[in-house]
Amino acid sequence: MHWKKPWFQLTILILLAFVWGSSFILMKIGLKSFSSEQAAGIRMLLASLVLLPYSIKNLKFLQRKDLPSLLVAGFIGSFIPAFLFTKAQTQIDSALAGMLNSLTPLFTLLVGILFFKTKFKWLQTIGLIVGLIGALGLITSGKELNFGSINSYALLIVLATTFYGININTIKAKLSHLSGVQITSLSFFFTGPAALIYLLTTDFQPVFTVPNWPIHFLALAALGIIGTALAMLLMNSLIRHISAVYASSVTYVIPIFAIFWGVVDGENITLLHLACMSGILLGVYLINKK
Length: 290
Known about the structure:
By secondary structure, the protein is mainly α.
């Protein structure tokens, strides 16, 4: 595959944006039958099961020095954010969740500067400030809240994007000697058992009383297999060939698809939402401007 070709890298980014932009509506469908914790657990378990053959095959490449970074990739990069996003979407729209996800490049740069010695320019600092102002606008514009109040559920997504920033920098700095398949399969080798153990402690009896629960399960299956396992394989392969901040720029395009599905599902998108999202995108553009 042409991982070093700019056109191929851009194609993968757009494909990931579509897959992850669609994941928010899949979460919303899954939550019609399952609790937020069950939805996240099912997502992670199915992703781990799909990757299990590759995990077993690549165990020979597992080194003790890589274990901490692989645990970061598995739990900080996927497992915990999966629970944060589904919990947040019990109270906020899927389109708003997609918009807030655009904060990932901001935190990728910030984490890189603070902990990974990433070089930056003052224009990037201005971009950080502009993007954070836009995010603050989204956080304070949740449903059933007056402007100026704080939607704590939106803050869960902000925390998730911070974790994504940590994960992307860690993979770029510590795991570039492994392939994308090796990074993904080995990191999910540890998250799968954790997801299974958690799911065994939950009560699925109420789920079976909900009409169309199999359809809602299929949405979570698509989320786990395509939106998590396949998407992370592509993302972790891409990170090895481009900068951490450029890799995180996939979230520029995610809101477009998230908003599209939100509108299709009848969600209310206001001019304030679009203005705040524009602020986030402007901030991200300034961060990446040569």
